């Protein structure tokens, strides 16, 4: 089949009803997958489409499906399989919008978590197109409430995701039960061996359509990355949310546990956020998505798998809290924003050990991702002040009943408060307390010379609070012990940082790097006192302390490492600012 460049939908030979619906939906010209996929599917060929979320693939198969439906027959004529309930609902709704002017056409979404009795009643009345998840489709097959005798078209949407979720046997059973003369269309982001196995077994001489890589990243999306210390990612993320006034946002991370942690941190800071991952029950997922679509929740934190099928229009942006382990996931993620000609933002928070993944993504997408500058604390306060002033100005201009409150200022004056105090108090109340957990200089990681050469900086002095002995030593100097001072255990500390390389944290301990050392005249008791006091952990749990000329290593329990990083980063020891991070092994 020869590929043509169709500039308009009318060139594709579509019916007037479909063209009218497309026009109302705001579709101006076919996307690459639509321009290639619609003609191939409409000519009756089996088709394999390699395309990601956000490329318009639902219309690529949905339009030909609608064009081939016989309204006079109440039998199921097309089946669309989707991996998740969310995607099944999304696909059925979009096909429904495309079918707006095809009177009498019936579409039913069937999935787990919904009443199977209601679905059975609907199927008995007659349905032309069924969109469902493999498990629920199998349930109806076993109950003989879903029959495929007159199915003309079978669509596998997000086939790779369905296989990853363990639906291979179900998919093969469903395909085997289909009429042999049906048309099969398969869409997948990747062409893995299991996918190819299914295509060879169940598809007949298929046409392969592939969206090339440079078409995967939307030109309307501003892509920027920020070099951020792991423990400062939430702080940087909230600054970006405030700076760019992101009202509808998807945040992606790599693990379920991280989803819960981020949501908790955001909620504590006053941001309306919810999380979605594989451990949520169907009802919980539905509630979370309903609140997000209604705007009650403005930030949705999700794992890649849980986000499949989520399609919310008008997203302001996407934040990659973790850099994805797979380059294609990055494309999936940022494709959620910048749709339908709108602009979007894709921000990536890159820790030092994630930088290589970002380079791989740039190589894959053929797009240079620009490095951004983290907004300063003063920037954020300034932005919030400007929005406060704008809000008050609008209230004054639009308010017809402000005279009801004219005496409030006078009442406050009588209470002894100046106009300046009143305005400042109102601003604080409306804008919220401005949090500043980190100094601006402690948000981003820097390539330190000591990181590159093994932190070679001469010998260090080791102290261990938990070792025996009532006193501790520093290069032979005896110092008096106190309740914060680690007891005696000293490494000899050879030249060129040998003690750094030879020592590793004990089991259950995490080694931290502090930017203060001997030249700053700090003692072990100063370090232990600061950590114990600020992080609220017992001083006796702190392990070995290695003090060098310009930096120090200190071992803390793994369970307390995160609390120590939060409490100490941007703090001071003996009045001197200290930077703290996980020590590089």
From TrEMBL:
InterPro entries per record: DbpA/CsdA_RNA-bd_dom, DEAD/DEAH_box_helicase_dom, DEAD/DEAH_RhlB, DEAD_box_RNA_helicase, DeaD_dimer, Helicase_ATP-bd, Helicase_C-like, Nucleotide-bd_a/b_plait_sf
Motif Q motif per UniProt: ranges: 7-35
Name of this protein: DEAD-box ATP-dependent RNA helicase RhpA
Entry EC no(s): 3.6.4.13
BP-aspect Gene Ontology terms: response to temperature stimulus; ribosome assembly
Region (Disordered): 448-508
Positions with biased composition (Basic and acidic residues): 448-503
GO cellular component terms, A-Z: cytosol
């Amino acid at each position: 089949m020869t590929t043509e460049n169709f500039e308009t939908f009318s060139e594709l030979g579509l019916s007037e009803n479909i063209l009218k619906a497309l026009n109302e939906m705001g579709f101006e010209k076919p996307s690459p997958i639509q321009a290639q996929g619609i003609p191939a599917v409409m000519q009756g060929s089996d088709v394999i489409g390699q395309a990601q979320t956000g490329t318009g693939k639902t219309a690529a198969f949905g339009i030909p499906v609608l064009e081939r439906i016989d309204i006079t027959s109440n039998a199921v004529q097309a089946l669309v399989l989707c991996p998740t309930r969310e995607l099944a609902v999304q696909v059925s709704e979009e096909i429904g919008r495309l079918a707006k002017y095809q009177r009498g056409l019936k579409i039913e979404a069937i999935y787990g978590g919904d009443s199977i009795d209601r679905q059975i009643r609907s199927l008995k009345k007659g349905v032309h197109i069924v969109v469902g998840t493999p498990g629920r489709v199998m349930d109806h097959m076993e109950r003989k409430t879903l029959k495929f005798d007159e199915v003309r078209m079978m669509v596998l949407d997000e086939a790779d995701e369905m296989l990853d979720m363990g639906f291979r046997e179900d998919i093969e059973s469903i395909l085997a039960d289909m009429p042999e003369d049906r048309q099969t269309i398969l869409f997948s982001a990747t062409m893995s061996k299991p996918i190819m196995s299914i295509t060879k077994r169940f598809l007949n001489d298929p046409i392969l359509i592939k969206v090339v890589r440079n078409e995967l990243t939307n030109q309307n999306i501003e892509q920027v990355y920020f070099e951020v210390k792991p423990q400062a990612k939430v702080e940087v993320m909230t600054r970006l949310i405030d700076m760019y006034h992101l009202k509808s946002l998807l945040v992606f991370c790599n693990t379920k546990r991280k989803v819960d942690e981020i949501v908790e941190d955001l909620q504590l800071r006053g941001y309306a956020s919810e999380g979605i991952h594989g451990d949520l029950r169907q009802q919980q997922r539905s509630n979370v998505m309903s609140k997000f679509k209604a705007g009650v929740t403005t930030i949705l934190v999700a794992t890649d798998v849980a986000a499949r099928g989520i399609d919310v229009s008008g997203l302001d942006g996407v934040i990659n809290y973790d850099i994805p382990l797979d380059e294609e996931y990055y494309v999936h993620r940022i494709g959620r924003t910048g749709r339908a000609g709108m602009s979007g933002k894709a921000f990536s928070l890159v820790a030092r050990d994630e930088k290589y993944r970002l380079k791989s993504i740039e190589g894959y997408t053929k797009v240079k991702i620009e490095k951004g500058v983290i907004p300063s604390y003063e920037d954020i306060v300034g932005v919030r002040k400007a929005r406060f002033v704008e809000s008050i100005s609008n209230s004054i201009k639009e308010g017809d009943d402000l005279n009801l409150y004219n005496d409030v200022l006078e009442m406050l004056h009588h209470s002894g408060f100046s106009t300046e105090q009143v305005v400042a108090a109102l601003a604080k109340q409306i804008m919220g307390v401005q949090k500043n957990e980190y100094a601006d200089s402690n948000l981003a990681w820097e390539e330190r010379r000591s990181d590159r050469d093994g932190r070679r900086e001469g010998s260090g002095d080791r102290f261990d609070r938990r070792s025996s002995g009532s006193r501790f030593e520093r290069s032979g100097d005896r110092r008096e012990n106190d309740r914060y001072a680690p007891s005696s255990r000293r490494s000899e500390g050879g030249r060129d940082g040998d003690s750094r390389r030879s020592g590793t944290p004990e089991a259950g301990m995490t080694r931290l790097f502090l930017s203060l050392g001997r030249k700053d005249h700090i003692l072990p008791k100063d370090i232990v006192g600061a950590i114990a006091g600020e992080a609220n952990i017992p001083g006796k749990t702190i392990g070995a302390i290695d003090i060098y000329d310009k930096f120090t290593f200190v071992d803390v329990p793994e369970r307390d490492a995160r609390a120590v990083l939060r409490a100490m980063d941007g703090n001071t020891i003996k009045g001197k600012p200290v930077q703290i991070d996980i020590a590089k092994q």
